[in-house]
Design goal:
Blueprint lengths: L6 E5 L3 H13 L3 E5 L2 H10 L3 E7 L7 H11 L5 E5 L15 E4 L4 H11 L4
Parallel strand pairs: 1-2, 1-3, 3-4, 4-5
Helix pairs in contact: 1-4, 2-3
Amino acid sequence: MEADLPLLLLVEDDPLVRLTLTEGLTDAGFEVLEAEDAESGLALLATRPDISALLTDINLPGADGFALAHAARVLRPSLPVIYASGRYREPQPDRALPGATFLAKPFSVASAAATIEGALGGE
């Protein structure tokens, strides 16, 4: 992968959804790291300072995406966060980080890519 591609951390417990998003977002110009749960995602964030943004499902086994995002912001205060959920139809302002973006499932890869680019400030 080229060094100038934005590195996205995708945290999604459904293997098919994770694979589909990884392939589509790679084709859309992102380098994608995958994690299947919040703990794995947080471990990657702790060891990869080059991660540009976090796209996390809200409903994860163990710690949920809200907890992951809050822990991620402790490590990386300015990290852009995009939440995704098929259960929630709109952002949960009482649990979500200020400034985080929300994608309701199902969403297209193009929509996800545009949302991530917007969160990155149009990089």
